[in-house]
């Protein structure tokens, strides 16, 4: 039991350390919250892009002017929330609404493997078309959640900064009176 408690305590302390690192990232609150929101938003399209988004992860964050450590933390938090998996059915519907497909590609016909070997790739095309719907929907969800997380991180950053400043003032007043 003690070993399990120790493990939970270590995980809590590691999480707290990463949050402190996030809030004390050099470059200011805008750079840090931009990096976090980019990392969190790009996590939404990882599954639907077959992890190819990681090829452009670093350049996008650097070109946008965000903080790379904050982007990595946002990406990890996006993974831990399981939001990409939860939002996938809704993303498919949203993608179908944004980019409607033809009536023949909406239904996947039952196709055997022999038909594909003979050159009938209609089933593969319809599967890829459905993946395109998911990619479109997850991109929209990533953009929306990225914008929301930008403002949420700024709020928490300012709240933490106010707490630290109030704590310093109390410490300063106590040291003056003593």
What report would you give on this structure?
The structure is a single chain. This protein has about 180 residues and is an all-alpha fold. About 80% of the residues lie in helices and about 0% in strands. It has eight helices and no strands. Helix 2 packs antiparallel against helix 3 and helix 5 crosses helix 8. The longest helix is centred in the C-terminal third of the chain and has 56 residues. The two termini are about 45 Å apart. The relative contact order is 0.13. The model has no long low-confidence stretch (mean pLDDT about 85).
Could you list some keywords that capture this structure?
single chain; 178 residues; mainly alpha; 8 helices; 80% helix
Overall pLDDT score: 83
What percentage of the residues does DSSP assign to strands (E)?
under 5%
Could you describe the largest sheet, including whether it forms a barrel? none
Radius of gyration: 23 Å
- The residue ranges in which pLDDT falls below 50 over 5 or more consecutive positions are none
How many separate helices? Answer: 8
Topology of this structure?
Elements: H1 2-23, H2 28-43, H3 54-64, H4 68-80, H5 83-98, H6 103-106, H7 113-117, H8 122-177
Helix pairs in contact: 2-3, 2-4, 2-8, 5-8
Structure summarized in a few sentences:
By secondary structure, the chain is mainly α.
